[in-house]
Amino acid sequence: MTKPLRKAVLPVAGLGTRFLPATKAMAKEMLPVVDKPLIHYAVEEARAAGIEQFCLVTGRGKTAIVEHFDIAFELEATLRGRGKQAELRMLREWQLPPGAMVTVRQQEPLGLGHAIWCARAFIGDDPFAILLPDDLILSETPCTMQLANAYYETGGCVVAVTEVPHEQTSRYGILDIASDDGRLVDVRGLVEKPKPEDAPSDLSIIGRYVMMPEIIPHLARLERGAGNEVQLTDAMAKLIGQVPFHGLRYEGRRFDCGDKIGFLEAQIAFALKRADMSDAVKAFLKTYCAELFG
Ligand code: UTP
Questions:
Q1: Please, what is the Cα angle at 44 between 214 and 165, to 5 degrees?
Q2: How far is the CA of 258 from the centre of ligand 1 (A)?
Q3: Are 99 and 55 a contacting pair, CB within 8 Å?
Q4: Dist. CA 213–CA 83, nearest whole Å
Q5: Span from the CA of 89 to the centroid of ligand 1 (angstroms)
Q6: Which candidate among 3, 28, 161, 167 keeps its CA 20 to 30 Å from the CA of 73?
Q7: How many domains does the chain have?
Q8: Which domain holds residue 208?
Q9: Which one of 23, 105, 110, 134 would you pick to mutate in the ligand 1 pocket, going by the greatest count of ligand atoms within 8 A of its CB?
Q10: Tens digits of per-residue pLDDT, 201-252?
């Protein structure tokens, strides 16, 4: 029987070098898209999928993330004093229950696989979701819920996948496909950052996973892979054959907010979805387009 999916690990210990100098003293995961930090979207998405327990894998300079999920006592008292009820309600609505979030420290950013291994005591013997907060997904059904639904169908690991341009395979973890029904892909292998000529397909894993606890012993070997980092993909590849392993072509649009262009695109796309902003955004886009394209 498939165990219920109640846990999520959110690795936030990376250095965010592509966003320097913004990320010199501030966590990349606190960068806002419109008015919410990236980490906030990830926690909301996980909660919508039934996740109840959260583990942030943090590092130096990331304390603002933990503060973000705490009660801001002075702020709330001030808002109350000023009669700002709507703002108070908004803060309260997404408050996590006491004890729902824990943090573990990844002392050195040795790679995503190492970050997940740091959460091993939290994971225990349970299935868990992984959400990389810099992948932001705009979708009807939250992406983690789509993965959870697929997990309850198939059991085992389910990773969110999308087609990438063939010449870009060396940026991603790529699937070797056993069979493919157009939605669910039965995976027979995984390769981290293959050159286009070596890539077994153009289907790439994005930052949403449902993982099995059996991955921990593979991660524990702390073998270095691409970029001399402990790669999650390499440990996942070893799980194939041991547990069911599927890719899910999720519904929705993904923005790589760890990259400046992806981040800018996300600002526009998310603002256009907001009833209070879309008219103003369309108006300035129209002006820019007229200036640029006549
Ligand atoms: P990235 O490779 O996108 O993040 O890792 P990064 O290293 O922070 O960014 P750049 O490339 O230097 O700009 C994806 C996710 O994995 C986490 C990151 O925080 C991010 O959420 N991560 C990565 C860790 O927690 N620890 C690591 O050692 C590496």
A1: 70
A2: 8
A3: no
A4: 48
A5: 33
A6: 28
A7: 1
A8: 7-258
A9: 134
A10: 999 999 999 999 999 999 999 888 888 889 999 999 999 999 999 999 999 9
